[in-house]
UniProtKB/TrEMBL annotation:
Official protein name in the record: Thiamine-phosphate synthase
PANTHER family: THIAMINE-PHOSPHATE PYROPHOSPHORYLASE (PTHR20857), THIAMINE-PHOSPHATE SYNTHASE (PTHR20857:SF15)
GO CC annotations on file: cytoplasm
HAMAP family: TMP_synthase, TMP_synthase_cyanobact
Enzyme class name: transferase
Listed EC numbers: 2.5.1.3
Pathway terms, separated by semicolons: Cofactor biosynthesis; thiamine diphosphate biosynthesis; thiamine phosphate from 4-amino-2-methyl-5-diphosphomethylpyrimidine and 4-methyl-5-(2-phosphoethyl)-thiazole: step 1/1
Species per Swiss-Prot/TrEMBL record: Stenomitos frigidus ULC18
Amino acid sequence: MGNTDGQARFVQLALCRILDANLDRAREGLRTIEEWCRFGLDNASLTDECKHLRQELAHWHTPALRAARDTPGDAGTALTHPDEAQRSSVQAVLQANLCRVEEALRVLEEYGKVYDPEMGGAFKQMRYRVYVLESKLTANQRQQRLERSRLYLVTAPTETLFATVEAALQGGLKLVQYRDKTADDEVRLSNAQKLCQLCRRYDALFIVNDRVDLAIAVDADGVHLGQQDLPIALARQLLGAQRLIGRSTHCPDDLHRAIQEGADYIGVGPVYETPTKAGRPAAGFDYVRYAAAHATVPWFAIGGIDTNNLHEVRAAKVDRVAIVRAIMHAEQPMVTTQYFLAQLGNGRSEE
């Protein structure tokens, strides 16, 4: 009888220690995320959701569970991993803490079923809410990075594709689109994977032209669609709410339709005739000025823009430009990128 009672007490104590540790882990992770939502994103809704989740966890963190804590006797306090010693970016901090919270909530859900029947259901619902929080946070992060981007590199097939893109990234570029209309799918997939990894290394957004399937396959930040590509609604259904969708537009009707359908950003052009869009007449500055007056999402002037005509483009109240040949064919793509970024400055167009 004594052994049975002793075993029951041991199990109960172990359960309390598991629950206490994972409640601490979840609350700490949520507080780390909350601080960025509050001070980094200035997002009241996300901050409030983190706070409410923490308060609900605190409700379950009873004195009985805290009393079971034995930090000096915890074998796990001496365990560590090299990845925990440093974080490459704020994004890495957020991802690590989202994973920590989700893992802790799964532990709380499973062991909570033994400790208190109500715990399992409560933590299950909380875990789903954190999944939603993660999607919203990812989408918000991408939107903010898009808003800050003034220069958008659209690639063209070259023998120096990766070296050119990396040089531009070293020059400060934060937004890249992989575009290749002629390569077979195996090559496109390989190139997209490598470019996506490059962009991650330099904390830049990576977009795939046309191909929603490739964007999903390489975990890109989004897709850019032409007028003849998939409808935005279908692309959104496939990509989810957290990824970006851009749309090329060539006239006011295109602009309003793209925004109404939910595009996160639009391309406006071509400003000048360009071999990238062979056979398409230039939309010209009338449409550029229309976009400046009516666009309610970030927009990028595109088409034949280079270092020689950028001043003229900026004079038409253009804050953001998308560049192809002027960087992809540049002798010094890093220097050229730095020039464009310096001219675009804080985004305020010239009067």
